[in-house]
Design goal:
Length: 539
């Protein structure tokens, strides 16, 4: 406790800045998720207070994440109710706690960077597409949970319909808010001691509130009640409506469990990526215990599902704001969650003055940052083996759903691995110019069954009468199937007048039994070959 309050002079100002950044983002993520806006604010409270209390991260900030917006939006639609979705959040929290005890904090290392970046870029495109209708004042519930246009509508249909029902006041708010967000990214703003301390999203929200009053002067710019943030009246709302619990009747629904597993994996992955980024930004270079972080996130999501909040992850935007404003301990993130709770209880009227178009502008910028053109250029520069899984993941997330998009990217990444293993299991050493010198094939460090075809093809292509030396001196793991091919090739080479010599072969645990069996097979084959070859010569 002493360490927690040891840097209160730094943590308190930082927590205020993070609070000002978090409120519009919590509302915006809820808007993009198709969930009640209060659910986003509750997630911010839980991410700050609950996760902050159990987390081992000193500077990471947790809350509702844009990366989960696509899952939430599609899941609420496919499950049929928000309460049933909350059950998936509870189960996901339990799964994360189990993952923490199972020491699964290294899970992020098993996903290729191209797939991870493709997932985030796809989410960015998804978020931007869902927010353009709000920017045009077309504030209605989406007719379907899919981006794919069909007879019922969908996001693409809304992108067409929004031009038929434009609210010019909302459009003006969105354009000005977007302009301010772009302006606040400029170096001269960031270098300014005063303006650099003011978060861009807060500037966009304040500008949106002020501009929404232009409707009293110009009726053409007037906003309707459906164009503002709508929060429940805390004083007059029963607790059951304020905090809707999960629908436990869906506990046997397989779709619930599939969604919960998806949330647990994606939330854990996004958290671990944010943890890694936050640790790199930490001026004291502290290392967050990832297994403990998974447990803390699991507890947070368990509570979130029980009280009606959105799922939670550690988020890099709020974490970086926390670090840049001088925070030193997790007191800052806990205080920011407390401030969000106080805002919901004490000033819900002020939050209700925020136009949805201003939040849409913030989310469009978030989507652009996740899917910026520079990212596509970097992936292209990495070669097709990186770019193809990246693009497949992006398209899968946008046109289907996040799980299918990641699966598509992982499948292509696995294909690339198989292809590389097929092509490069060995190196053909340079042959001396003098005739009669042997051909030397140097096997790589790890030769698996995936390399069988390419090794067999290379040996078959060797000209008759060759002297081939297969050097396994650098090989650490040699698959028994490959060893059997090499032994068989020693026998087949005799019929072509060639010699295959294996040097440097070590008795690895993986190959020991197969080597003994192959030795017996080779001895028998040699004896048969000794009788067969002279007969052919005599004929």
């Amino acid at each position: 406790m002493k360490n927690l309050f040891g840097s209160v002079k730094r943590d308190l100002p930082a927590s205020i800045v993070v609070f000002l950044v978090a409120v519009p983002l919590c509302l915006g993520v809820a808007l993009a998720s198709g969930a009640p806006l209060i659910a986003g604010l509750l997630a911010g409270v839980i991410g700050g207070v609950v996760v902050g209390a159990f987390s081992g991260s000193q500077l990471g900030v947790s809350g509702p994440a844009a990366g989960l917006a696509a899952i939430v939006l599609t899941s609420i639609g496919s499950l049929g109710s928000f309460q049933l979705f909350l059950l998936t959040v509870v189960i996901a929290g339990v799964l994360q706690i189990i993952m923490g005890f199972a020491r699964a904090g290294v899970i992020g290392y098993y996903f290729p960077s191209g797939v991870i970046k493709g997932m985030l870029a796809g989410i960015g495109v998804f978020i931007a597409l869902t927010q353009f209708p709000h920017a045009f004042g077309y504030d209605k519930e989406l007719e379907t949970d899919s981006l794919t246009p069909d007879r019922q509508g969908g996001v693409f249909a809304d992108l067409v319909h929004m031009f038929h029902d434009i609210n010019y006041g909302a459009l003006l708010v969105a354009v000005v808010a977007m302009g301010l967000l772009v302006l606040w990214e400029r170096p001269f703003i960031k270098r300014n001691k005063v303006l650099g301390m003011v978060p861009g999203p807060l500037v966009a929200v304040v500008a949106g509130i002020l501009m929404s009053r232009l409707g009293t002067i110009a009726p053409l710019l007037a906003l309707g009640d459906n164009h503002y943030v709508r929060l429940p009246d805390v004083a007059g709302t029963p607790l059951r409506e304020m905090f809707p619990g999960p629908d436990w009747s869906g506990i046997t629904n397989m779709k619930v469990w599939t969604t919960a597993l998806t949330i647990a994996l994606v939330a854990s992955l996004e958290t671990l990526l944010s943890v890694e980024a936050a640790d790199k930004l930490d001026p004291e270079k502290r290392i967050t215990p990832t297994d403990q972080e998974l447990k803390a996130q699991g507890i947070g999501n368990l509570v979130a599902g029980l009280v009606g909040a959105l799922p939670i992850t550690q988020v890099i935007v709020r974490s970086s704001a926390n670090i840049q404003t001088g925070a030193r301990t997790k007191l800052s993130t806990m205080l920011h969650g407390t401030f969000i709770l106080l805002a919901v209880l004490l000033i819900p009227g002020v939050l209700g003055m925020i136009p949805l178009a201003a939040l849409a502008a913030i989310l469009i910028q978030v989507g652009f940052k996740l899917a910026k053109p520079k990212l596509f250029q970097e992936m292209w520069a990495g070669g097709w083996t990186v770019f193809v899984p990246f693009v497949a993941t992006v398209l899968g997330v946008v046109f289907f759903d996040l799980l299918k998009g990641v699966f598509a990217g992982m499948a292509l990444a696995a294909f690339v691995i198989l292809r590389n293993n097929y092509k490069v299991p060995f190196r053909l050493a340079e042959r001396d110019t003098e005739p009669g010198e042997p051909l030397r094939i140097e096997l790589s460090e790890d030769v698996s069954f995936l390399n069988k075809a390419s090794i067999q093809r290379a040996l078959t292509a060797m000209p008759p009468g060759s002297h081939i030396i297969i050097d396994a001196g650098h090989t650490v793991a040699l698959d028994p199937d490959v060893l059997e091919i090499l032994r068989d090739e020693q026998v087949r080479a005799l019929e072509k007048g060639s010699t295959v010599e294996i040097v440097g072969l070590r008795e690895h645990r993986r190959t020991r039994v197969a080597a003994r069996l192959s030795e017996r097979h080779v001895h028998r084959s040699y004896r048969a070959a000794d009788h067969a070859i002279p007969n052919k010569t005599e004929q």
